[in-house]
Amino acid sequence: MQASKNKNTKEAEPFYRLSVPKQKTSSEIINEARNVLRTVRTRRPFTPTEDQRKLFGSGSLRAPQSRPPSVFSLHASSFDLAESRPVSGVRLSPLNH
């Protein structure tokens, strides 16, 4: 009878030791993620070359005025507006470089 009593106490775990699964280490998580990943073969899209094809060069069929709006020139005259001056209205002298 004594032997069976000892056997029961050895099998019983303390109440504070819950059956929580062991937490994975960071290397285990990374290795698991690497195993799930797969490589995908990619290729750049093919663009055929044409000798006559010009965007904005001298041989372009487009008029120079029809350049896209992202291309513009910025001159000093753009900053001579009243909005670009300080509230005091004083004109600032240019910086020496």
UniProtKB/TrEMBL annotation:
It comes from the Eukaryota. GO terms for biological process: sperm axoneme assembly. It comes from Pelecanoides urinatrix (Common diving petrel). PANTHER family: ARMADILLO REPEAT CONTAINING 2 (PTHR21356), ARMADILLO REPEAT-CONTAINING PROTEIN 2 (PTHR21356:SF1). Residues 42-69 are annotated as: Disordered. Transmembrane segments: none annotated. InterPro entries: ARMC2. The gene is Armc2_0. This is ARMC2 protein.
